[in-house]
Amino acid sequence: MSTERAPLTDRTLVVSGGSRGIGLAIALAAGRLGANVAVLAKTAQPHPRLPGTVHTAVAAIEAAGGKAVAVVGDVRDEADVQRAVETAVERFGGIDICVNNASAIAVEPTEALTAKKFDLMAQINLRGTFLLTKACLPHLRSSANPHVLTVSPPVNMNPRWLGAHPAYTLSKYGMTLLSLGWAAEFAEAGIAVNCLWPQTYIATSAVANMADGEQLIGSARSPEIMADAAIEILSRPARDTSGHCYIDAEVLTAAGVDDLSRYGGGDAPTLDLFLD
Fold first, then answer.
1. Residues 168, 173, 201, 246: which is the catalytic one?
2. The pTM is what?
3. Of 53, 123, 160, 163, which residue is 20 to 30 A from 69 by alpha carbon distance?
4. Closest alpha carbon to 70 in 56, 90, 81, 89
């Protein structure tokens, strides 16, 4: 990892969907570097199939050396999102980083996909990303090194990805297009807006609960690879780092990490969606 970067000590992150998986991994990595983290997530009580709650996430971040606050709320709800932002500002004095991690996935063919699942993906992936970023913007403008990082893929117009699961593809590409648009819109303000996507499947509960989850988990890398790549990006000067769709492994390789085997996945990790 590069050392010629702005430190994360005392910088404040707001992370959506931060109770588990990639969101939690990013929050923990930031906490280890002395950051403050506001965790926005719906899970207040343990879920039978999903490990962790917003409260266990906060405990883990604080155990790692950071400061954290839990906000139980729904990223689709404007009032909940505003409350999360206000809580971060009240507790830590401002916001430096917005991480749009919350996401919903449904990959059924169009004829099998319910309107309810379509709406859920549109509301969490698109509306949630819009609401959280918008709420953070007034505070990001006051930050010395403001960043927005969205967990979404490069826009790949290969018909394979357009046709595989159009509704999910639309929602994820929408997150990316919003982010690239914001990079242009807020360039003069010096707010960096970037996307980050895994090169391979990541060993999360979402992957484990897929139909072929057991097989995928065996060839998936740990969430820590996304966390380490995120920290590398978020530690860079904002004015020099905006408008990109980064791939986690490429970020780390460029930063001098030669051996990715410590993140697991075996000798041939499974390539993630949207990457050819």
1. 168
2. 0.95
3. 123
4. 56
| Nearest 10 degrees: Cα torsion 202, 122, 171, 87 | -60
Residue-by-residue DSSP string for 64-111:
TT-EEEEEE--TT-HHHHHHHHHHHHHHHS---EEEE---------TT
Task: Dig out the tokens for 228 from the structure.
Answer: 């380490």
- State pLDDT tens for residues 16-30: 999 999 999 999 999
pLDDT of residue 99: 98
Under the banding of pLDDT at 50, 70 and 90, the label for residue 41 is very high
DSSP state of 221: B
Q: What is the CATH number of domain 12-263?
A: 3.40.50.720
Specify whether the CB–CB gap between 64 and 31 falls below 8 A.
yes
Q: Quote the CA–CA distance of 121 and 125 in Å, as a whole number.
A: 6
- The length of the chain is 276
Max mean pLDDT range (14-18, 45-49, 202-206):
14-18
Nearest to 238 by CA among 142, 126, 155, 173: 142
The mean pLDDT value for 165-187 works out to: 98
| Rounded Cα distance, 131 and 124, in Å | 10
Q: Please check whether residue 35 is in contact with residue 11, taking contact to mean a CB–CB distance below 8 angstroms.
A: yes
* Residue extents of the structural domains in the chain: 12-263
Residue 200, phi then psi, degrees to nearest 5: -125, 170
* DSSP β-ladder status, 36-41 and 67-72: parallel
**DSSP string spanning 183-220?**
HHHTTTTT-EEEEEE-SB-B--HHHHTSTTHHHHHHT-
